[in-house]
């Protein structure tokens, strides 16, 4: 007995020494993972459709603080909020915070899209997309975009007394994408594309249960159809490139196919081209159509802002000859109109939030985010923080007169840092060209209430029906 007691006493200092050397245990953030697979997904989706998603997230923050755990779309997830969290997400390297979307987005858009890649692969693919979407390249396409907008207004707006804005803006942005990014002529092939495309995006935020009649299943099948159509387009464009070479005004697919490295090897694989073209389709179609729709909604409710936008656009219109298209220089004069667009993005961001993945165990704010867990950030929370934007519910384009006055990583409709959306300049062009012709050719008033839901993009009631009548230059 004495021997056992002596042995125990000798062990105590050794145990204390070992304990002192061990790192202190970090616990995962507070919260609950909920029901397996489903977790809090249905609650979030219900809140988005009821237009209470920001409130739903804010209640979690009030209960658990700026970092908490939950389960979304089949994965354990950490919700992070605030300027510091945004900076951490957008500025951390791929070895810490990796690109990875929910299973539903990954399976629908593909595993070689920019949303999934990291490290050298991410830099290579992003570099290829940015080289096509940078301002110097897009200058060549302003005239084409102008022609698409004017053709759209002649077909769908002129001679009408009432239109539904959101469906028409989706048609417009889809046609711009088909023309500028795919070089796809109008006709049955475009129509087939549009039908499958709309079905595909419906299930991008959904619980990944692949059984018949679910949104997820319908989206997967539509995605497979689109990929097959894109494979055919890529194959045909390869043949044209081999026969005729590259042209100065080529579309995105031809441009990516023609990119080769120093050894003459193609920079992107066919799979990477297809998956990233699908990503650009979604980004260029949905975000721009929603932004233009909400600007139209806003201008109907804000007469003073509407008058200021009209004055700026009429001055540009008066400087043009009949039939003359807008130029890059014209777009650079639309400063007030773009501030209106920025304030619209602040109050009604098309992207509610997005996901990353912990590439390793992460210590953040005193908590452990385990390797492999999702990280979820929500765009609109810092946008509506009164400590960052005074009177956040007031629409005030003057907030963006001096963009340097907006604190970094607080206004994030296009992401931030090195991970800012490469298509943001393309979205600016689409928006400014469309708004120019809309405000100089038409007046309008709303036909329904101002309610909208998220699915996952903001969707106004009944697609935002408006009464329209022609306007003449004053």
TrEMBL record:
Which sites bind heme?
421
Tell me the protein family, please.
Answer: Belongs to the cytochrome P450 family.
Protein's name according to its UniProt entry: Cytochrome P450
Q: Name one GO molecular function term.
A: iron ion binding
Q: Where in the cell is it found?
A: Membrane
Q: Which PROSITE patterns match?
A: CYTOCHROME_P450 (PS00086)
- List the lineage, top down: Eukaryota, Viridiplantae, Streptophyta, Embryophyta, Tracheophyta
- What cofactor requirement does the entry state? heme
| An annotated GO cellular component | membrane
Q: How does it sit in the membrane?
A: Single-pass membrane protein
Q: Which GO terms describe its biological process?
A: sterol metabolic process
> Secretion signal: which residues?
1-18
Alphabetic keyword roster: Heme, Iron, Membrane, Metal-binding, Monooxygenase, Oxidoreductase, Signal, Transmembrane, Transmembrane helix
Q: Taking the first listed entry, what is the main subcellular location of this protein, grouped into a coarse class?
A: membrane
Q: Which InterPro entries match?
A: Cyt_P450, Cyt_P450_CS, Cyt_P450_E_grp-I, Cyt_P450_sf
């Amino acid at each position: 007995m004495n021997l056992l007691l002596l042995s125990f006493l000798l062990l105590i200092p050794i145990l204390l020494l070992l304990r002192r050397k061990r790192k202190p245990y970090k616990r995962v953030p507070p919260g609950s993972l909920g029901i397996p697979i489903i977790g809090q997904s249905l609650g979030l989706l219900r809140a988005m459709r009821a237009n209470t998603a920001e409130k739903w997230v804010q209640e979690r923050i009030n209960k658990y603080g700026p970092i908490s755990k939950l389960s979304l779309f089949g994965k354990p997830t950490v919700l992070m909020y605030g300027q510091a969290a945004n900076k951490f997400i957008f500025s951390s390297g791929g070895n810490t915070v990796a690109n990875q979307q929910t299973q539903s987005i990954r399976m629908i858009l593909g595993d070689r899209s920019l949303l999934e890649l990291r490290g050298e692969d991410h830099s290579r693919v992003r570099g290829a997309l940015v080289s096509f979407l940078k301002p110097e390249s897009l200058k060549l396409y302003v005239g084409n975009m102008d022609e698409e907008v004017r053709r759209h207004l002649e077909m769908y707006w002129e001679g009408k007394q009432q239109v539904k804005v959101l469906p028409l803006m989706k048609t417009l942005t889809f046609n711009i994408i088909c023309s500028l990014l795919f070089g796809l002529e109008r006709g049955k092939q475009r129509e087939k594309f549009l039908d499958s495309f709309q079905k595909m995006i419906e299930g991008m935020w959904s619980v990944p249960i692949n059984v018949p009649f679910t949104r997820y299943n319908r989206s997967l099948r539509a995605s497979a159809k689109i990929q097959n159509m894109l494979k055919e387009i890529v194959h045909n464009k390869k043949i044209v490139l081999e026969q005729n070479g590259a042209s100065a005004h080529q579309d995105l697919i031809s441009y990516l196919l023609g990119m080769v490295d120093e050894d003459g090897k193609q920079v992107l694989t066919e799979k990477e081209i297809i998956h990233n073209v699908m990503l650009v389709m979604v980004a260029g179609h949905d975000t721009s159509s929603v932004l233009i729709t909400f600007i139209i909604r806003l201008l109907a409710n804000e007469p003073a802002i509407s008058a200021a936008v009209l004055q700026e656009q009429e001055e540009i219109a008066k400087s043009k000859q009949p039939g003359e298209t807008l130029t890059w220089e014209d777009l650079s004069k639309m400063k007030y109109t773009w501030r209106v667009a920025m304030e619209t993005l602040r109050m009604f961001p098309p992207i509610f939030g997005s996901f990353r993945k912990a590439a390793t165990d992460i210590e953040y704010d005193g908590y452990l985010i385990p390797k492999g867990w999702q990280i979820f950030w929500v765009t609109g929370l810092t946008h509506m923080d009164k400590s960052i934007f005074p009177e956040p519910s007031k629409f005030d384009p003057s907030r963006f007169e001096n963009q340097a006055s907006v604190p970094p990583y607080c206004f994030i409709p296009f992401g931030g840092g090195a991970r800012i959306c490469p298509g943001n300049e393309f979205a600016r062009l689409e928006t400014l060209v469309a708004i120019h012709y809309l405000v100089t050719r038409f007046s309008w008033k709303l036909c329904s209430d101002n309610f909208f839901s998220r699915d996952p993009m903001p969707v106004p009631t009944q697609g935002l029906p408006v009464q329209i009548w022609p306007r003449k230059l004053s």
